[in-house]
Amino acid sequence: MPRIRERSRLEGRLDKALKVFWEKGYYDTSIEDLSARSGLNRDVIYGGYGNKRKFFEMLLARYRDTYVARWFAPLEMPDATLVQAEAFFQQFLDLPDPADKLGCLMCLTSSEVSSHIRSVERIVSRFLGDLHSLIRAACVRSRERGEVRPTTDPDVVADYGVGAVLGLWAMVRSPMPRSAIAHYVKGVRTYLRGLRPARGAGEIDGGV
Amino acid sequence: MPRIRERSRLEGRLDKALKVFWEKGYYDTSIEDLSARSGLNRDVIYGGYGNKRKFFEMLLARYRDTYVARWFAPLEMPDATLVQAEAFFQQFLDLPDPADKLGCLMCLTSSEVSSHIRSVERIVSRFLGDLHSLIRAACVRSRERGEVRPTTDPDVVADYGVGAVLGLWAMVRSPMPRSAIAHYVKGVRTYLRGLRPARGAGEIDGGV
DNA sequence: TGAATCCTAGAACGATCGTTCTGCATCTCT
DNA sequence: AGAGATGCAGAACGATCGTTCTAGGATTCA
Asked: Distance, in angstroms, between A10 CA and closest chain B CA?
């Protein structure tokens, strides 16, 4: 519950603070960094949120409700199938904003903080679980429609998809060239298309 | 160049120090941790290797020459094809030693330190480049033998493979259950098998 | 046995961190 | 205009870190 007077500017400042965590990660971000680059005073952070950890968790929830929600949008359509899963991966090839160099804060947090702080692990687990559920549901719908082979296990596809997202963002943070990410996404799409019923499943390789 | 008297016990102590970095990551490991758990005195670390960063880089090279070399073995056979690439991924499902919970130190370092320290980035880049080359070479051989479609781009397959490795180890470090990793590897194998020439490429789904 | 060498434990330094406190400027409202 | 709440910058505390230094115990070899 931050003070009233600055509430008008608060939103923008929280976004700036979020981006600091996003760039540098949790441990490498100091309160000084946050304060200097967001305009939020230490008192606002401590008075309003308690400590660094709680402040971070609040911003992590904020990240989920904005960036993650936008990325999940294709999969959250009530009749989403694996076609939307392909679109979900495809969108990462043309990223706006900061994400093109920073990757995904949830995935970064998953490897950096998740094992150290229980409360953060819960947030990350929920993110991974949501992603799993969405892909799984899409796969079930695809199977009902006969768009994938009936032997396809939605849980296997969902786990694969979650791992693919983690791998994608690990690549972004790694020293690999941008072209490699495009190749990787292409591979994931190839996998998804390979789930389709036998006839013609083989030769859909050269597509975009 | 550590002192002479303790050289007999040095190897085992370096391995212990390596495991501390492997467990906790570079930044979360203090010299105290290293000293206490490995038996190496601070003076041995500083006198022998200069500072924490150089000591870490030496252990990273050591890691490459032992663990990584062992994992790369199937792909380093002079006539390795994508069959060996499948075996390469398959071996991560039955990991001995510490790796089953700790993942891969190179991949951990890639996301944690690589962007901060130039000299470490070079080591990680070389690791990623080696992996890329091995998968690429295997793909070229498979293509020469007609085991994959002639339109298959070895660079795309190699980049996909590298991303798949990063994703695999990101999963291991994440809160995801162990079963998800098995599903993920299964998916990667499905991708690799999907590269085979059209006839019959579709229905090889239920295999181990 | 004695001297040179090596190993270890501990203190110490400067830096940085998360967090709290204090003093003062600024704003809101009657 | 004046009182009270709210804003900020800086100092300060205790903890931890990487790194260096020092003193003394242990080991090796003539």
From this structure: 31
Whether B201 sits inside 8 A of A186 (CB atoms) is: no
Distance CA B33, CA A178 (A): 37
Say yes or no: Cβ of A44 under 7 A from any atom of strand D. yes
Q: Do A163 and B184 touch (CB under 8 A)?
A: yes
The dihedral built from the CA positions of residue B192, B195, B200 and B203, taken in this order, carries a sign that is positive
Contacts of B93 in chain A (CB under 8 A): none
Q: Please name the nucleotide lying closest to B33, CA to C1'.
A: D17
Note whether B110 and B124 are within 8 A (CB).
yes
In angstroms, what is the C-alpha Rg of chain A?
19
Alpha helices in A145-177 (DSSP H): 154-173
* pLDDT tens by residue, chain A, 208 residues: 344 445 568 889 999 999 999 999 999 999 999 999 999 999 999 999 999 999 999 999 999 999 999 999 999 999 999 999 999 999 999 877 667 789 999 999 999 998 899 999 999 999 999 999 999 999 999 999 999 999 999 999 999 999 999 999 999 999 999 999 999 999 999 999 999 997 644 444 433 3
For residue A35 the two structure tokens come to: 């304060």
First to last CA, chain A: 49
The distance of B198 to chain A (nearest Cα, Å) reads: 4
Q: Sign (positive/negative) of CA torsion A24, A29, A33, A39?
A: positive
C-alpha span between B119 and A113 (Å, rounded): 24
Q: Find, among B91, B109, B96, the residue nearest to B170 by Cα.
A: B109
Which distant-in-sequence residues (6+ apart) come within 8 Å of B119 by Cβ? Answer: B53, B57
Q: What is the pTM of this model?
A: 0.90
